[in-house]
Specification:
The protein has about 80 residues and is mostly helical. Helices cover about 40% and strands about 0% of the residues.
């Protein structure tokens, strides 16, 4: 939700990024562009990966799809 706020009000953008943000807004003004929010429950794979990551104590690398997201991943 925080990501959508700068599109509603430029005042929320930090001054160091203001010039770049205004350039981005100018670039997207000529395009059909909209920002939406998907609640956690709407993206099961991302939700599951986030939950898995919360329970990891160290860096972990998967060479294959984790079993926990296999069902949700195949539904895409």
């Amino acid at each position: 939700m925080l990501l959508t706020l700068p599109f509603k009000s430029k005042k929320i953008v930090p001054w160091k990024l203001k010039y770049r943000w205004e350039n981005c807004l100018h670039l997207i003004s000529s395009k059909s562009f909209f920002v939406t929010h998907i609640y956690r429950e709407g993206n099961h794979c991302a939700d599951q990966l986030g939950n898995i990551g919360l329970n990891l104590n160290t860096y972990f690398w998967w060479n294959h799809l984790p079993q926990q997201i296999g069902v949700d991943f195949t539904l895409l």
